[in-house]
Structure formats: C-alpha cells, structure tokens
Amino acid sequence: MARYKFSDVLAILKSSAGEFGNNNSFRHAAALSYYTIFSLPPLLLIVITTASAVYGGEALTGQIYGQLKGLVGADAAAFLQESIAKFTLQQKGGLATAVGVGTLIFAATTFFVTLQESINDIWNLKVETTGIGVGQYLQQRLLSFGLILSVALLLLISFVVSAVLSIFTGWLQRHIPEAGVIAIRLVDFTLSLVVTTLLFALIYKFLPDAIIRWRDVGIGAFITAALFIIGK
Q1: Helix, coil or strand: residue 3
Q2: pLDDT for 61-71, tens place per residue?
Q3: Fewer CB under 10 Å: which end of the chain, C or N?
C-alpha cells in the first residue's frame, strides 16, 4: 500500500489551488448556491421524514434545526423551517399526491445533479450528453435520491451515537465538571468530522462519472470535511 508523505500533501494542495482558478470554480459555486436555495427545503423534508420514522420526529427536527442555526444563522434556519412547513404535502387524492411527491423528489435531487455536473467539469470528465434517454435520466435522479437517503441514515446514526455519548459526558460533567466540558466539545467535533467525512466520501465515490479508489476518496473527503467544519 502506497503511503503519502507530507510533501505529497503540500503538492496536492498547491495543485488544487492552481486548478481552482482554471476550472471556473466560482461559477460552479454560484450555480450550486442558486440551486441549493430551491433544493434544501425539500431535501431536508425528505431527510427528516425518513429519519423520523426511526428516531422520532420532534427530537430529530429539533436537533437538525439546532445544527442549521450554527451553520447558517438563526434567521436563515427559521426561513428554512418555514419553507419546509409550506412544503408539507397535503393528501388530496392519489394523482395529486403522486405529482406532489414527484415534484418534491425532483426539487431535492436537483442539487446533487448539479453537483455531479460541476465535479465532472472540474475533474475534466468528458461525459456523452447527446442521446441520453429516459432510463439514464431516471438513473441519475435515483442516484441523487439514494444519496439523500444516505444523508438521512448518517444523521440517524450520528444522533444515536451522540445520545449514547451524552450519557457518558453527562456523568463526567457531574463528577468532573472541567473534564465534562472538554469531553463534550471533543465528542461534538469528532462526531461532526466523522459524519461529514463519510458524507463527502459518498459524494466523491458515487456521484462523479469516474471510478475512484476508496483510499483516494478518503483523503479528499477528510480534507474537505475539515475545511467545511473550520468554515462553520
């Protein structure tokens, strides 16, 4: 198994910085930001609905919005919460419900489809776009929907692990208050890093139209997750 040296990491960072300016990265970022505005409410609604079936709706929703407040601010989190409430499907009959569910899935998966196209472009992957049939289009959307369900699963696992660890940190805080505070922060950081790394690993492994080794995926996912958490 090949081992990466510190000089290799520096070379990768230097190369990445150079390629950042050569691949219209700001344009891709602007496009993703635009589609995120429309995709995030239905995406969160699907994630909450899926995970709530196991974890419990109110507890899960509270934790998700708590994370959103820390990430985008209280006002933006409240806006998302209101948008999700308006996005809730009303049972108006079989056809209306089917159309509503289809629209919801289409809106939620648009972000991942756009992200896939951006990664393909940045990685210089030449994908044949002419003659794409309905089957390939549906396959692309199903892949995006599968990633959404993976997000729900990762959130569910992280909340369960967090609940178990909170028992231990609570015991520390009662008996050793100083150690309890440090333990809570360390557990929160570690859990966030692990979950975010897994999420980016899934994106890098399955979303681009390329075959990538898990070893290479892991390095990129870890660095991206670390930068993402620092950026929060």
Answers
A1: coil
A2: 666 666 666 66
A3: N
Three-class HEC string of 54-98: HHCHHHHHHHHHHHHHHHHCHHHHHHHHHHHHHHCCCCCCHHHHH
Q: List Cβ<8 Å contacts ≥24 apart for 77-81.
A: 80/40, 80/41, 80/44
| Residue pair 25/118 in contact by the 8 Å Cβ criterion | no
Q: Is residue 139 part of a domain?
A: yes
Asked whether residue 10 is domain-assigned, the answer is: no
In the block, tokens 């496009």 appear at: 31
Q: Is the pTM of this model over 0.85?
A: no
Distance in angstroms (rounded) separating the CA atoms of residues 55 and 122: 38
Which residues form the domain of 161? 19-231
